[in-house]
Amino acid sequence: MLNATSLVLAAAEPLLAFFCVLFVAVPIGLAIGAVILRAAISLFNKFAGFGEDHLSRVPEPEMLKAMGIVFITGLVNWVVGFIIGLFGAVALKEVGQPWAELLPALFSLPFSFLVASALLAGLLPTTFVRGMGVAACQYLISILIAVVIGVIFVIIAALVAGAA
């Protein structure tokens, strides 16, 4: 199976590939995540009916703070997912592929949502319930982006198959 780890380890210069990922891919990913977070906060405030001067409005963080929130949330969710994956690997060692990998990932989604909600409540001046709303909007935006990218890939694949 080809993944990012095998690309880095199989590179001609693994250290160069590591630094490229660290100093190029990670900041780009954090910037995209920060834009999604800021859009989710704006969407939540609109869904909740909070105007610009409403006291219950979730404040939109600056870009660097949003990148930090995305980094911390991703790191904590990675740790939680890793722990659930370890328990899942032990509990599901009898189950065949792809279920042995898929079930722990699906099981970790509610925990990931709660962790993101708690971190948003702690890192933004807002409540846990509003953090849940922002996290839900973040999931919604991410799913919509994934669907759009998937549709683009299907269209390109259909065009390539039609041309062949």
From TrEMBL:
Keywords: Membrane, Transmembrane, Transmembrane helix. This is Uncharacterized protein. It comes from the Bacteria. The chain crosses the membrane at residues 15-37, 66-90, 102-124, 136-161. It comes from Gimesia chilikensis.
